[in-house]
Amino acid sequence: MTSKILFYKNMWSAAVKKLSRHKYLFGILLIATTLGCCSLFWGKAPYDAKYLASEETRMWKAYYSKDKAQLAWCLIQVLRRQYGISAYEAGETGNLLADSAMKFKAAKPGHYDEALPDLTAAYSKIKEYSGLKFDPEEAARADLAWWIDRRDPKRNDPVTIGKGIAHLYEVMYGYKHPGFDMAGLLRAEAAHVRDQGKDGCDWAKVEELLLLSYRSLKDGIDRK
């Protein structure tokens, strides 16, 4: 048992060191992970909107306070809980997301597709863990599309970003639903609250918006 704990500790220490090369990467990693993984499925664990909103808020706080170790720890715990996977499997998925984020960070306008291979591979693993049926490349492209919008000051507004997130949900689940639209908008509004508040961010408001977003997402999931 001790050797396993040491193995996982060393693996995540190496991952954190790798990720810390690019400070901005953590913003993308956080978004890609929470939206591309955690918020889309209930996976192996019961869907718990309050838990997901609380943990995601913790990840946002860790990112903005530059607490890389806490961010990595939250990430692995949520992935393991949601999908019932091992720490190693969670690490593999996290590293693919990190690699895609680094390539996106370094890419010049018009070359953002350089991030797609790793992002598609990450979605392939998410598909396997979640049991959902979707096209990993289509999901990766939908995710990447709103990453790009977040990078464009002219398009980085809650309505535009919210529509992009809702489209990602539609790709993952294979249908449209008003719950997805509302979930995307609420999530984008949470990001907007943080962008506007910066160091004085109202974290209680952020968590409240994320909770409402997760509940709206559940409404879409439960359409049947």
Please provide a written account of the structure.
The protein has one domain (15-221). It is 75% helix and 0% strand. The protein contains 10 helices and no strands. The chain has helices spanning 2-19, 25-36, 49-64, 68-83, 87-106, 116-130, 136-151, 158-173, 178-197, 203-221.
Summarize the topology.
Layout: H1 2-19, H2 25-36, H3 49-64, H4 68-83, H5 87-106, H6 116-130, H7 136-151, H8 158-173, H9 178-197, H10 203-221
What's the number of extended β-strand segments?
0
| N- to C-terminal distance | 43 Å
Q: On the 0-100 scale, what is the average pLDDT?
A: 79
Largest sheet: none
Helix content: over 70%
Classification by helices and strands: mainly alpha
**Could you tell me the radius of gyration in angstroms?**
16 Å
What's the number of helices? 10
Q: pLDDT under 50 segments (min length 5)? A: 19-42
Strand content bin? under 5%
